[in-house]
């Protein structure tokens, strides 16, 4: 997969994916009449580029071929997941969705600042981490266990942290994820937490 650098040494946002209570997968494409409109989020573009960039060169936002780079990614996140988030009281449309996620990231979901650094966990290309170190940090801060996703790099002998997933309630407080909502962690002990 081709990746692009974000220009940041910190974790970035991938998305906010609504689910229903119980064992359902992420809700997707809930309302096709809510098409992505880049103009609605123009005032958020600087923040979005910094905290919610597209790190992968892929996109599947077919209704807007004129978009490029991160715009495709935002389009996908809105049409696939944001349209489902509109069931939450605080999110009444596209602008609210992106603004809410940015505010969550700024005030509580910036894992680098609010969890990891406080527990001595910093990005490194030379220092491998144990899964328990990450889990213990999240349990200490929010009493939740994160799902850690890793990818194999190079010849497959090095695991690199790809994402950290946690669950929120509809009032955006942390809650423990049910086993059936999120996949299992894919990181083994000795994984690396690279700078983004």
UniProtKB/TrEMBL annotation:
What are this entry's molecular-function GO terms?
Answer: ribonuclease T2 activity; RNA binding
InterPro entries the record matches: RNase_T2-like, RNase_T2-like_sf, RNase_T2_His_AS_1
Q: Which Gene Ontology BP annotations are present? A: RNA catabolic process
Per the UniProt record, the source organism is: Geodia barretti (Barrett's horny sponge)
Annotated coiled-coil segments of the chain: none
Name the UniProt record assigns to this protein? Ribonuclease T2
User: What family does this chain come from, according to its entry?
Assistant: Belongs to the RNase T2 family.
């Amino acid at each position: 997969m081709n990746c692009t650098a974000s220009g940041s040494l910190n974790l970035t946002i991938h998305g906010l994916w609504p689910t229903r209570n119980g064992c359902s997968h992420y809700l997707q494409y809930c309302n096709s009449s809510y098409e992505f409109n880049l103009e609605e989020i123009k005032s958020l573009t600087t923040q979005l580029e910094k905290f919610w960039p597209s790190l992968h060169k892929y996109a599947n936002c077919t209704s807007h071929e004129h978009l490029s780079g991160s715009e495709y990614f935002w389009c996908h996140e809105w049409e696939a997941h944001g349209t489902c988030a509109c069931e939450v009281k605080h999110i009444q449309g596209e602008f609210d969705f992106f603004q809410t996620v940015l505010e969550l990231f700024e005030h509580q979901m910036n894992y680098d600042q609010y969890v990891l650094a406080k527990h001595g966990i910093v990005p490194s290309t030379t220092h491998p981490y144990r899964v328990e170190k990450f889990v213990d940090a999240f349990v200490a801060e929010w009493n939740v266990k994160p799902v850690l996703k890793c990818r194999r790099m190079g010849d497959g002998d090095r695991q690199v942290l790809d994402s950290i997933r946690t669950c929120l309630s509809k009032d955006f407080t942390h809650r423990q994820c049910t086993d059936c909502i999120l996949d299992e962690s894919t990181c083994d002990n000795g994984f690396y937490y690279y700078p983004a």
